[in-house]
Amino acid sequence: MSMLRQDPLTGRWVIIAAGRSARPNEFPTQTRDRSPRTDCPFCPGNENQTTPEVWALGRATGQAENGPGWQMRAFPNMYPALVPADAVAPFGRDEGADHELFRQTAGLGRHEVVVYSPNHQDSPAALGPDHMAALLLILRDRAQDFSQHPQVRYVSAFCNHGPEAGATLAHPHMQIIGAPEVPLLAACKASRFAAYRQDRGQCLLCDLEAAERASGNRIVAANDRWTALAPWASRFPWELLFIPRRHGASLAQATTEELQALAAVLSPALQRLFTFHEDPSLNIVIHSTTVDTAGQDEDGNNFHWHLEVLPRLSRPAGFEVGTGYTINSAVPEDVARWLRGEGD
Ligand SMILES: [Zn+2]
Ligand SMILES: [Zn+2]
After folding, report:
1. CA of 327 to the centre of ligand 1 (A)
2. Residue 74 in contact with residue 145, Cβ under 8 Å?
């Protein structure tokens, strides 16, 4: 049973999910050992250690569901942060709160895992463009499925690679969560998109992408559908931002060609990042909306979805955690130049 509580001081939603404390953690001491394990629940042959799969790719005809032979498979998280409505007792907003300041809502939503390789020692950088495209396509399809559920107002797809990035299992996987409330960062972005559109009549990220291409200083890679860059105000050293050049609010609305084009720039960028930093911990996060997300205009046009790569080369300390400021030791223009292969 999980619940969402809203911090009255900031408006930030917090998911309280006590059941997740029981999940296995292969990285209790921050080691990064990814040697093969017989007890890995995500390795082929151990499918009975996960929940039943909702999707799989790669099995030959005649191979059974929930058995080996797959290249990728998706299933509900065994220790979900949020759960479907039919899995919990009815629980209304504010139930249990004893003051209007104590806003609380049931932890309803979706939380799935996509194991994107049968090879325990793979990393996001090991995926070639075709494999990466197949992963992005399944994330899109799951996002479309999540968006059908009335309790889901926000969808986040993300990868935790390495212990510093929050991974508790080494086996390569991504996760996707459909949440019942719009998180603070997304609400902040949505309001800035809305204000920019009201002021300029344009999309904030469409304009930013055009300005970055005109400048060229922070561009890492580009094709006719995507621009990859080191953001102007990167929070993390070696942070990367991937912007689709066609305006769209949601991963769920992306075309197959767009996702193949994203894989064509994302895959080599990750491989280059992994040559500069040996197997770095990192998060990959897709910022997307469901169609009815608050802050969009009537056409659902305010937001513009995007993907971030957030290397976790340093740890946030008191100043960062306490203020929201971040201190970044890598100059974005240098990072872009290095990743373009231009050296010093
Ligand atoms: Zn494994
Ligand atoms: Zn746009």
Report:
1. 35
2. no
Ligand that lies nearest to the alpha carbon of residue 302, given by its number in the listed order? 2
Question: 286 phi and psi, to 5 degrees?
Answer: -100, 125
- Same domain membership, residue 313 and residue 246: yes
Reported as a single tens digit per residue, the pLDDT across 97-147 is 678 888 888 888 899 999 999 999 999 999 999 999 999 999 999 999 998
Q: What is the CATH number of the domain that holds 267?
A: 3.30.428.10
State the distance from the centre of ligand 2 to the C-alpha of 301, rounded, in angstroms: 8
Q: Tell whether 86 is covered by a domain.
A: yes
Q: How many A from CA of 29 to the centre of ligand 2?
A: 42
> Which of 284, 323, 7, 263 has its CA nearest to residue 134?
263
Centre of ligand 1 to C-alpha 72, Å, is 12
In a domain, 120, yes or no: yes
Distance from residue 128's CA to the centre of ligand 2 (Å)? 28
**DSSP β-bridge partners for residue 116:** none
Same domain, 229 and 282: yes
Domain holding 296, by residue range, is 206-339
116 alpha carbon – ligand 2 mean position (Å): 29
